Amino acid sequence: MTISHHPPEDLLADFAAGKLEEAHQLVVGVHVAGCARCTRFVRAIEQLAGAALEEVEPVPTAPDAFDRVMSRIENSPAASAAPPPASAADHDIPPALRNYRIGKRRRVAPGLSMRPIELSGSGKARAFLLRSAPGSRMLEHTHTGTELTLVLEGSFSHEGGRFGPGDFDYGDDEVEHRPIVGDEGPCLCLVAMTGNLRMNGLLGRLIGPFVRL
Ligand SMILES: [Zn+2]
Predict the structure, then answer these.
(1) Ligand 1 centre and the CA of 205: distance in Å?
(2) Dist. CA 208 → ligand 1 center (Å)
(3) What tens digit of pLDDT does each residue of 12-59 get?
(4) Where are the CATH 1.10.10 domain residues in the chain?
(5) Residue 198 has what pLDDT?
(6) SS3 of 124, please?
């Protein structure tokens, strides 16, 4: 897996400090778990923070956000109560999410479906798995909040380049884009989103009310 798009460094620093809200912590954490470069960066920040804390006063509170996320991602399902039995419908749940409760698949728009990921509910951002049909072209849209996207399978492309498995994309209300899904297969993404999508153009305004994201 060649990863060419990484989270911005300030996002990684906030992740290392455990300052991100749950949905963002999850998406960044799954990227970091599969990315040697970002793992090194996060570990380095934790060591710096740990050293800085030791110099000030000997408090035993080194940031362990990374380890907490990783242990949730890496722990065996046996650790959680009664994991749901694997079924054909669950084939698109990546191993990193097996300790999370994931809702039923819901059609969002033609060629687009989503499955919500159950979080503790303390944050404003929602997390979900988004599946797009191969070759589909999303309508041009803008975000009213931020959107963190991690590609799990397949690919999409937009003005920012091509995004394949492991690649991380960051969008906010400054960004207008119209991703095209690669032809090689469905594109499965893990997404954390605040706010809503705003569809642009006449067609977007017509179908906007039917797009439930
Ligand atoms: Zn990375």
Answers:
(1) 36
(2) 33
(3) 999 999 999 999 999 999 999 999 999 999 999 988 877 776 766 554
(4) 9-79
(5) 62
(6) coil
Residues near ligand 1 ion, CB 5 Å cutoff: 6, 35, 37-38
CA of 19 to the centre of ligand 1 (A): 18
Centre of ligand 1 from the C-alpha of residue 73, in Å: 17
Region class of 135: left (phi > 0), else alpha (psi between -120 and 50), else beta: left
126 strand-pairing partners: 193
Q: Helix count (H) and strand count (E) of the chain?
A: 5, 12
Assigned CATH for 97-210? 2.60.120.10
**Residue segments in the chain with a per-residue pLDDT below the cut of 50:** 59-62, 76-83, 85-88
- Domain at 9-79, CATH class: mainly alpha
pLDDT given for residue 176 in this prediction:
66
Confidence at residue 88, expressed as pLDDT on a 0 to 100 scale: 42
CA dihedral 182, 187, 190, 193 (to 10 degrees): 70
Q: What is the pLDDT of residue 72?
A: 67
Q: Where in the chain is the domain with CATH 2.60.120.10?
A: 97-210
